Amino acid sequence: SAFFARALKDERFELSGQDGARFLREAAEFRDGAELLYQLTDPQRNGAKILKRALCCEDSVDYYRRSVVPFLARLGQDDMCLGTCKNDLNAVVDVVFAVPGFRRALRQTAEASTDHLAALSWFCLKAAGLRSDARTDSDWRTLADLLIAREAPCAKSLKAVFSGSEREAKRMMRASLVDVSESMPGGRHDNDRFDYRSTQIVPTVQEIQCVKPPYLPPPVSESPIDDEVAATLDRQFRLLREDMVGPMRLGLQNLVRAKHTTPGGSFAYDAVAFEGIETHPRPCLVASCELPPRHRGARLKGGEALEYWRSPSGAKNFPLGSLVALVNKREGRVEYVATIVRAEPDELASRDTFRNNRARPRVGLAFARDLDAYELADILRGLGRVTSTSLVRVCAGYFTYEPVLSCLQKMHSIPFAEELVYGKKPGVATYLAGLDVDAEIENLERSDGFEYDPSQRDALRLALATRVSVTVGPPGTGKTHLGVRLAELIYRSTTERILILTFTNHALDEFLGNLIERSITNVVRVGGRCQAQKLEKYTLQKKQQDLFNQQRSNPWSSSSCSSFDRRRYGALKQRKSECDQQISYLRKDLSKQRSWAAIQKFLEAYDPAAHESLTVPGRRRTSEPNTGEFVVVGPNGQSFKPNHLYRRWLSGYDRGDDYSRQNPRGVWSLDKQARLDLKSKWEDEISSEAREQLAEVLLEYEEVQNKLSALKEDDWRAILEQSRVIGCTTTGAARSNNQSPLKHVLEDVNISVVVIEEAGEVLEAHTLTSLQSGLKHLIMIGDHKQLRPKLEHYPLTVSAKRGFDFNVSLFERLVRSKDFPHGELSVQHRMRPEISQFIRSTTYPTLQDGPGTLSRDRVRGLTHNVLFVDHDEPEDAYAADLDDESHHHDPSNKVNRHEVAMVSAIVRYVLQQDYDPSQVVVLTPYLGQLQEIRHELRRANLGSLVGELDADDLEDDDDAESPTSSLPKKDSSVRVATIDNFQGEENDIVIASLVRSNPDGKIGFLNEPERVNVLLSRARLCEIIIGSSKTLRKAAAAGNSCWTKILDDMADQGLIHRGLPARCENHPDLPPRLLDTLKDFETRAADGGCHRPCEAVLKCGHACPLKCHPFDRKHHKQHAICSAPVIDYCKEGHV
């Protein structure tokens, strides 16, 4: 109305009591929610001011009941909580909550009436989720208690939020008869809060330097928080954050204590200089640093340097999204913790052209998002200075922690809490109540062309009957097949939207690829690292590009975009441009030298004594006849420039003869260095105002950027709303920042069904944050007896036996619950029975072999399909000729060079049996061994490749290829992987290097039965294990029990040998040969067969020069490389 519009535009508009009620009533009746929020928060309007006045007009219960509560109800409607509205809604809630007297009046209104419970509980919860002071305010807590007692719509969420508040902590401490402060959170440092929602995710300097052990919550059953949902969220947040902060804290404390470069190959760079400000992709401080002299990037220049920094090797030094600490090693303290948000290759290739021409890569650092302008201005004081600070990378994977932690802080409830928190039996999947499950299973069998076994049918029935289903699938039992068929069945039988979640990108590509092969194409894949070419057109990036192309050059010109969105986009772009101009001006102002005129003006106001001492006390000013400039005439009639005394003072001189008797003390009594220091102090104080202005503009610029980024959610929403199947990783599903707002959008598009594959590998925190509030069905498929989720901080693991058990997944917790039903697949279709027998005897006693495994071919060139190549050669840390203690300190850096050589020889022999390199994989527990094997295979001209996860931990290798050999070239390479990163995959032939060989029985990673299970269950045809049986039998506890059983079974079947027992495929009558040295491979099986010469006649007429060889038996390829001379004669008889 005209009244509402005038109230917002006219700065002189005043509200009376009736006007306040009218304003709130018209706001509550405003049709377009997004437009209302924008008008109330637009800085060009009076919205916030008028809203405050309207709320202050009266504080009576009747006024609040009739006028205020309906306005709050309008704020809680669905159209106010979508996409671009979220930030504005939060701003309005902040304004309302801070109005004096509002909380008391709202409490009194609730006490006087039972009306409007939905609106009151929604607003109470919204404010408590946004503001820590709301969770400690007495009126707000009383209001929450009242709403909980009346079982208002958000009562359970209110209880969860307020159960973890600091107010509740104080109540518990007062009620306790003993001092519980050490067993409760709070007080250890400035980021130790009882309320986990108030904790800053990026650790503070004080937190990192705190020597007191952090508070780590006990199991939920022992938690001081009485609400189990609140205790679960609190525990998941704190332990996940400790997994990130714990290693960082220990590493930095050791670094500061030692006052030298970080040990163990950590990334540390000295002589940090703050060089300026950049605004893309978000406002950041540009810092440069020196590379160590031996660093590869320090030796390269020009195009070579640029190519290096573009490569994965170079990018690994300064990965985007990683956390770094600025450490003053000389003084032994951490100064700042920041995030790398900008790392452009051309800036990383920068060199210091003004001094020593050394490489000085430049990166953009962003500090904590809740910094205020004063704190940011203090950081900006370092602009333009080279410091004694070092930049130390402390958490490369911060970008995987932050979205999940942030999501946990915003959660008020847990979907399906009855099952997931309280452990009750799962409810019925009511949306599938009318489905004829048996008929649908028969349809799936017909389309697959085979009958399902009873365990598959039972698993399908249970998964479709209960709203929370758990299916256990041992290796090779078809877990992915089951998940794809469940998703397909739900897709074809309902109109529900399905979210597919996996832990790895590889598994996501496989799952979605299988759906597409089943003609389910209404699919979108969210996130990067898509390796499957057939999925390219289904990626969100491709669909966004298609949408942009449809809208031509302006994405806001589409008719699908409202006029309001276009106006808002234009206003934000305009404000961003204005901020850019202000930042440019202030940046230049801060970079320029301060003239004497500026310093003189400053001293006149703030240090009159110094001003008098440094100002030429002339009697008159006169104009020069030639230049027209004014000069100062001194006491003896000489003319001086106004900065005459200031320049003498800076140069370390006295005032001179003319002024020697005037004020000889004060600033003139300082030595030269003290004068320069004082000058710097003055310049710093002069710049303080500009720094504060710059800090304020930068914060506003980031806010504008966030709002512009939020507008992109509309694109995401439009694409996802048109898709029936959405696929992403569990980390991606929790992302809720403005660069990747998937969590927000998933909430908006109503996900009904979630299917989680690899659920046993997913941390409970990741699973919980992947679930949406409107969920109808959760399907989890995995294997809790394979590897548990990975943690960075060992004390939190089950193996550490400290009671935290944080790497127990939600999947495993439910499977191990006695009262929770789960399905279990029991027939494996991967391994030959000779291989599966070992996991059956150690882990899966009821596992059956599928009929297809019984007819698999015998492996060529070997006596058995399972072999253990035994040896006593020590691992490098124990070898007598090695003096490298680093292997003792880095648990992933174990190497056994004897096994490296044996692996290379065995790989060559296996490939000579005419297997393609893509059929072979080499597995090892240790990254150090992986790298050595990879190098050795390349030196032997065998080629090697690593998967995505292992590639993240390795730098590119530049070793030259070895000379060519008799082995024919292949198009592919042998895969080399760590056991952990090969979980969920399989191959025909697995060659395993166990590495550990020592007199102490230390087997490290091989102690875990779950890892051994994965190792023994990857091969379809053949498993060759190279290791020391003596060391394995000496291992302690679980490792000893597991390996002793395996080795005893192998020994009984004659599978353990002191070399590789080879058999000749061309001459089966010959007895097997034991190849136990590298020389044996060269002399007794040079070309993969036996010692006999081949002697076959090639097409060119020559005899084959090779020994007996099983590859290229028809000699099509060998003829092509025959190099024997051919003697021929012309008609005249000449040679």
Automatic annotation (TrEMBL):
**Composition-biased stretches (Acidic residues):** 952-961
Q: Which GO terms describe its cellular component?
A: nuclear RNA-directed RNA polymerase complex
Q: Cross-referenced CDD domains, in alphabetical order?
A: EEXXEc_NFX1 (cd17936), SF1_C_Upf1 (cd18808)
Q: What molecular functions are annotated in GO for this chain?
A: helicase activity
Gene3D superfamilies, per this entry? P-loop containing nucleotide triphosphate hydrolases
User: Residue ranges of the DNA2/NAM7 helicase helicase domain?
Assistant: 452-789
Q: Which GO terms describe its biological process?
A: regulatory ncRNA-mediated heterochromatin formation
User: Pfam families this protein is in?
Assistant: AAA_11 (PF13086), AAA_12 (PF13087)
> Which residues does the UniProt record annotate as the domain DNA2/NAM7 helicase-like C-terminal?
807-1029
Q: Which residues form a coiled coil?
A: 687-714
Region of interest (Disordered), residue spans: 952-973
Q: Which domain of life is it from?
A: Eukaryota
**What keywords appear on the UniProt entry?**
Coiled coil
Q: What is this protein called?
A: P-loop containing nucleoside triphosphate hydrolase protein
